[in-house]
């Protein structure tokens, strides 16, 4: 948990309280909906501490205990905190045990399965979402037909998509030439599917099987988390993730 003796920016305080995202926090502050010690504050970077009385809709806002979850997403769940079409989301999988507001780091599309990290630690989420943090994600990809050697080499040495050059960290055949294991640290939207679709292959199944950080200094895999289940990350894992 945040050290309450240290002052932090008001928008960060709201983010870490779990009531909203940082962007929405800025909107709430600028629209005069947040008071600190009975004063309306409209500056996002106004400094507050745990001894200040922060109110939203006349209700106290307090810092949450940080939560870090490793979840194995099944097919047909949306990677979001809520869905306007009332489809099932990954948050439904952790209720009712987890009542605090948490959000997924990164995305898996609805048809994909595998590992997701969820947290209410906005600072860590921001860091982990940036490619420079070098989180490597490994996927098993089932294709509609054999990946021939020429196309395998194109992917291995990198290719250009509409949003730039992309080169995986590693790629290999596993049980057959239709089943590929690929590791990548890019966080671009639908990047794995787009790599294969650019070479006219259809992805039949996509499963994220592991995360690794800084050359396997921290390694998280799905073997111990059955599909549709989740667990809290250990103190050691959290420490390594933040280090």
In words, what does this structure look like?
The strands form 4 sheets. Strands 7, 8, 9, 10, 13, 14, 15, 16 and 17 form a 9-stranded mixed sheet that branches. This protein has a 4-stranded antiparallel sheet with strand order 3-2-5-6, with no helix packed on it. Strands 1-4 form a two-stranded antiparallel sheet. It has helices at 10-17, 22-30, 122-128, 149-157, 191-197, 235-242, and strands at residues 8-9, 34-36, 39-40, 47-48, 54-56, 59-60, 68-73, 103-105, 113-119, 135-143, 159-161, 164-166, 170-173, 179-184, 203-213, 218-221, 230-232. The relative contact order is 0.14. It is 20% helix and 30% strand. It is of the alpha+beta class. The protein starts with 7 loop residues before the first strand and ends with a helix. β15 and β16 form a beta hairpin. The chain folds into 2 domains: 8-60, Structural Genomics Hypothetical 15.5 Kd Protein In mrcA-pckA Intergenic Region, Chain A; 65-243, Pseudouridine synthase (2-Layer Sandwich).
């Amino acid at each position: 948990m945040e050290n309450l003796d240290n002052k932090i920016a008001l928008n960060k305080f709201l983010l870490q309280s779990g009531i909203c995202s940082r962007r929405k926090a800025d909107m709430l502050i600028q629209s005069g909906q947040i008071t600190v010690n009975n004063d309306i504050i409209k500056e996002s970077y106004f400094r507050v501490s745990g001894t200040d009385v922060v109110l939203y809709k006349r209700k106290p806002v307090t810092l949450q205990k940080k939560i870090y979850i490793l979840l194995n997403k099944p097919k047909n769940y949306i990677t979001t905190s809520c869905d306007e079409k009332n489809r099932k989301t990954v948050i439904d999988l952790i209720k009712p045990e987890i009542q605090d507001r948490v959000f997924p780091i990164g995305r898996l599309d609805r048809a994909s399965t595998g590992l997701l990290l969820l947290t209410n630690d906005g600072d860590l989420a921001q860091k982990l979402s940036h490619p420079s943090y070098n989180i490597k994600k490994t996927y098993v990809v089932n294709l509609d037909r054999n990946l021939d050697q020429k196309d395998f080499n194109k992917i291995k040495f990198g290719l250009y998509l509409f949003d730039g050059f992309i080169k995986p960290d590693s790629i290999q055949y596993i049980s057959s030439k239709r089943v590929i294991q690929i590791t990548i640290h890019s966080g671009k939207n639908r990047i794995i599917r787009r790599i294969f679709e650019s070479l006219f292959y259809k992805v039949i199944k996509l499963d994220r099987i592991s995360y690794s950080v800084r050359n396997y200094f921290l390694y998280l895999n799905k073997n111990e988390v059955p599909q549709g289940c989740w667990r809290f990350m250990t103190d050691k894992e959290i420490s390594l993730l933040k280090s």
